[in-house]
Automatic annotation (TrEMBL), chain A:
Full protein name: TonB-dependent receptor
Source organism per UniProt: Chitinophaga agri
Domain of life of the native organism: Bacteria
Gene3D superfamilies recorded: Carboxypeptidase-like, regulatory domain, TonB-dependent receptor, beta-barrel domain
UniProt xrefs under InterPro entries: Beta-barrel_TonB_sf (IPR036942), CarboxyPept-like_regulatory (IPR008969)
From TrEMBL, chain B:
The name this protein goes by in its record: Tetratricopeptide repeat protein
Signal peptide: 1-20
Key words of the record: Signal
Originating species: Chitinophaga agri
Length: 716, 215
């Protein structure tokens, strides 16, 4: 009987343990505001509840004695509290905001980062090319960001009082020697790279990482895409050419390869729309590219990218020196670029990035004052071979140490009417840099770069430092300081080898507020130039200068329906005494005020996108040789205004995703004058104006396999 | 003898305790799944409340994939129903965390692939311009994966049809193709036997609803 009782007791044990107790309470945040939707539970049991609109909750539980009560809610740190259940109980819990990885402060002074990784980056990769009138050119699109100049009469990206030469372009860490097509006089060369090659773009207008060198003003850092999701094929036709390509994802999904080819010829277009100056040879471009990507392990990847371009063009324009005669300018360009990179995690928080690149560029130039002189031939050749290794070691949650080195072997050959000036340069650099998180709110980056270049037999050490502090979840302040060195331009090194490095010192302070739909940034900078190239009787690096200014950026993706717009304003005060300048003066590539407005509107009913880009800048100084020397660069050109518009219509033709595109640069055909050129006797002058002030582009693109129409639209 | 008897008693007691535990699981799950089958509960806030309960069950039953699966399902459905885009990413993240826990317990599961596909779909909405391609393809390939695991799962065809149904024709959508998928889905629903009363069995009524809109 005793045993039977025992059995009964054992069987009933679970039942006996039931004796339900009510747990209730209120959940608030640290400011005592009630929190709804909090998941409250007795740890490791089903018992719990969800808090209501007033933050209160209640539930019953069978648990007794010492227990843990947990509370979890999105965006808040989970709370765990020990309780002792003997009877009904009230448990009030205060939740604290979560500082998660996404809200950790990042180094941001001086840089605009476009990437898919972060949810609140200022711009997405596609956004940077979402610009009517930019014509699928990364650099043209970047000209809608603050800090840039609307210099459309010369090659390159002019940033914060710097020349185009002061901006360097990097692909996967490797320098690109000729990122722009060789252009005709007074016309900018387009960028050579399709925006679709890159998953991330960082445009740094100053104070950038010690990983990069040889750019006094700015670095454009491009990161190539990884494996495609699936195979695809493209075909395109427009008023100026045709293109086609394929990208194959291998069967094991661990590798891919792609080839592309395009042919552009402006001949038919020029038959309809007459340019200001006639072409002796209609611009013709043949381009091919190939890429290969292979995963070598779960963390390792090898990437290859290479292209070959060939351009041929020539103009005839009235001679300024010899009235009644014409000047012929013909250019043949060939360009090869290859880039091979490898990255792998080595374990224990070590990462390796290594790369090798080779590029070669040849410009054949033919100059002739027709019927007046015999032609003059010139040839410029450059080759650059580069190797680079970077090691990264992670510490704790966020801090990292990076160090590495690079070597560049450059060959420059030039031949002008039989006159030769060739040289070879060996450049070596090493850098070390650390991002130190003092707290998740405060990060410091300190580092430096040491360089030696054989052509001028000089070395330098460039310290750099940044600091960023997060004020609230969405806002932060940043500061940056850095020394930047660059070799003088090739055209001076050819003739003189005992020059020094040119140098700039950057100081930057910025505030930014970034949420999903809005971005606001304001940045102030001061840049001091030392040792700029001075020409004259004896070329030397004794020039000086400065640039200072304030820039504002505002982007809004939400307020207006189906609309995304951004506004950039830059104020720039810069003077320099370099080249043949007699004293410090505002240079001819710098405008005091620059404004850009980019506006995009999507009409879902007819699947059509409209875009408008407006750019403005105040007049730029130009040199009038008829004025006394103390009036050097005192005259200014007219203000610059440009309106680009675009429209695109999406449809499907059988199995192909198809898009029709119409885009017009400088649609109202506003007159633009970039400067004036004077004859040697100072009697005649010629306006520097675009050869085709308005350009109308009509095209059709078809994609098979992958819908890339959105990319194309975003490219307008 | 006493000792043996005592041991037996103890064993029986333990068995009844664990049976109670399992019965508790079945009971709690049946109750919650029934809530999901009731269309009046299909609103963004109520779904989050149900998700909380599934999360609690999941936290207590560390070897069952269904609580995590349903928690994820509730989060992604709530995300898809949100009027405001601001919450979509956070809810999708929560859904993703839960479905990964489910997948760790039950790898190569077609139902799990279906929910993962839904999560990718929900993320597109935040920024269709730059996310459409990446997540659209991810969503589609997850459904292909699910179909490879189990060709009889009606939800795969239903989700493929849904994607065709809501995608504008200019972007490759098609109501007639969607209709074909829905018809296959309904045929599969008619023969589909859920592994248990609490195994995933949603979607039939919804499929019929969408199909009715085409006819």
């Amino acid at each position: 009987m005793k045993h039977f009782n025992l059995i009964l007791l054992t069987l009933l044990l679970p039942v006996c343990m039931m004796g339900q107790q009510r747990i209730s309470g209120k959940i608030t945040d640290s400011k005592k505001r009630p929190l709804q939707g909090v998941n409250i539970a007795i740890k490791d049991t089903y018992d719990g509840a969800t808090s209501g609109a007033d933050g209160s909750y209640s539930f019953t539980t069978d648990s007794k004695g010492s227990q843990y009560i947990t509370a979890t809610l999105l965006g808040y740190t989970s709370q765990e509290q020990k309780i002792f259940i003997t009877g009904p109980q009230e448990v009030n819990i205060i939740m604290r905001n979560n500082i998660n990885d996404l809200k950790v402060v990042t180094i941001s002074a001086g840089s605009f980062e476009a990437s898919d990784e972060g949810k609140t980056t200022v711009l997405k990769p596609l956004d940077i090319v979402t610009t009517a009138g930019a014509g699928a050119d990364i650099v043209n699109a970047l000209k809608t960001l603050p800090g840039t100049q609307q210099t459309n009469d010369r090659e390159g990206l002019f940033v914060r009082g710097g020349t185009g030469y002061e901006t360097q372009t990097f692909i996967d860490g490797m320098m690109v020697r000729n990122p722009f097509f060789s252009g005709l006089p007074d016309q900018p060369g387009r960028g050579r790279f399709s925006p679709f090659l890159f998953k991330g773009t960082t445009f740094s207008s100053g104070g950038y990482s010690a990983q990069y060198g040889q750019g006094l003003s700015s670095a454009l850092i491009l990161e190539s895409t990884d494996l495609p999701q699936r195979s695809s094929y493209t075909l395109g036709a427009s008023v100026i050419g045709i293109n086609g390509g394929l990208e194959e994802l291998m069967k094991d999904k661990k590798g891919s390869f792609g080839v592309e080819a395009d042919y552009t010829n402006l001949g038919p277009y020029l038959g309809v729309v007459k340019p200001k100056y006639a072409f002796s040879k209609d611009p013709e471009i043949i381009g091919t590219s190939a890429n290969f990507r292979r995963k070598t392990s779960s963390t390792g990847m090898i990437k290859f990218y290479g292209y070959y371009n060939r351009t041929n063009m020539g103009t005839i324009r009235p001679s300024l020196e010899y009235p009644g005669f014409d000047e012929l300018f013909e250019l043949k360009n060939q360009n090869v670029y290859t880039n091979l990179t490898y990255k792998e995690s080595l374990g224990h928080d070590w990462k390796l990035n290594a790369g090798f690149s080779f590029s070669a560029n040849t410009d054949d130039i033919n100059l002739d004052t027709l019927q007046k002189s015999s032609p003059l031939q010139g040839k410029n050749q450059s080759q650059l071979t580069q190797a680079r290794v970077v090691l990264t070691k992670g510490f704790g949650q966020y801090s990292v140490l990076r160090f590495g080195g690079e070597y560049q072997y450059g060959v420059e050959k030039s031949n002008f009417g039989g006159w030769r000036a060739n040289y070879v340069d060996n450049y070596t650099a090493g850098f070390i840099e650390s991002d130190i998180y003092i707290t998740p709110r405060l990060v410091g980056r300190v580092g430096g770069r040491a360089e030696y270049t054989s052509i001028i037999s000089k070395a330098n050490i460039a310290p750099r430092a940044s600091l960023a502090y997060r004020l609230t979840a969405n806002s932060q302040v940043s500061f940056a300081y850095g020394e930047f060195y660059q070799k003088p331009e090739q055209q001076y090194l050819r003739f003189k080898h005992d020059l020094g490095f040119t140098r700039a010192t950057h100081y930057i302070a910025s505030y930014q507020l970034v949420s999903k739909n809005y971005t606001f940034r304001v940045e102030g900078f001061y840049k001091k130039y030392h040792d700029l190239v001075k020409t004259g009787i004896d070329t030397s690096t004794s020039g000086t200068g400065y640039a200072k200014g304030i820039e504002v950026f505002w982007r809004d993706k939400k307020t207006l329906k189906n609309t995304d717009y951004w506004i950039s304003y830059s104020y720039l005060d810069t003077k320099r005494n370099y080249l043949n300048y007699p004293f410090e003066v505002q240079p001819d590539f710098a405008a005091k005020h620059t404004l850009s407005v980019v506006y995009k509107y999507y009409i879902p009913a007819i699947t059509t996108n409209l875009g408008v880009t407006y750019s403005f800048s105040t007049g730029r100084p130009y040199y009038n040789p008829n004025l006394p020397e103390n009036k050097f660069m005192s005259e200014k050109t007219m203000t610059y205004n440009s309106v680009g518009v675009s429209a695109s219509y999406l449809t499907s033709i059988r199995k192909a995703f198809t898009i029709f595109v119409l885009s017009v640069s400088n649609a109202p055909n506003i007159k633009q004058v970039y400067g004036y050129r004077y004859s040697t006797d100072k009697l005649r002058r010629q306006e520097i104006v675009p050869n085709m002030p308005r350009f109308i582009y009509l095209g059709m693109f078809m994609n098979f396999g992958v819908d890339r129409r959105q990319d194309v639209i975003n490219n307008l | 003898m006493k000792r043996i008897l005592f041991s037996i008693c103890l064993l029986v007691g333990l068995a009844s305790f664990s049976m109670a535990q399992s019965a508790q699981y079945e009971g709690a799950m049946t109750k919650q799944v029934a809530l999901l089958d009731d269309s009046t509960n299909f609103n963004p806030d109520k779904l989050l409340e149900i998700a909380n309960t599934f999360e609690r069950i999941g936290a207590a039953e560390k070897t069952q994939w269904l609580p995590f699966y349903y928690a994820s399902y509730c989060y992604v459905m709530s995300s898809l129903m949100q009027k405001n885009n601001d919450k979509v990413d956070d809810l999708s993240d929560k859904a993703a965390v839960n479905i990964e826990q489910a997948e760790a317990i039950s790898p190569k599961n077609d139902e799990i692939s279906c929910v993962k596909s839904l999560i990718a779909t929900s993320r597109i909405r935040v920024d269709p311009m730059s996310r459409g391609m990446k997540y659209g393809m991810e969503s589609a390939s997850l459904l292909v994966q699910a179909n490879q695991i189990n060709q009889e799962n009606p939800r795969v065809y239903m989700l493929q049809g849904q994607s065709l149904f809501f995608t504008p024709e200019q972007f490759g959508g098609s109501k007639t193709e969607a209709k074909k998928k829905f018809e296959v889905a309904l045929q599969k629903f008619s023969t589909f036997k859920p592994a248990s009363s609490i195994a995933p069995h949603w979607g039939e009524a919804y499929t019929k609803g969408l199909l009715a809109q085409i006819k």
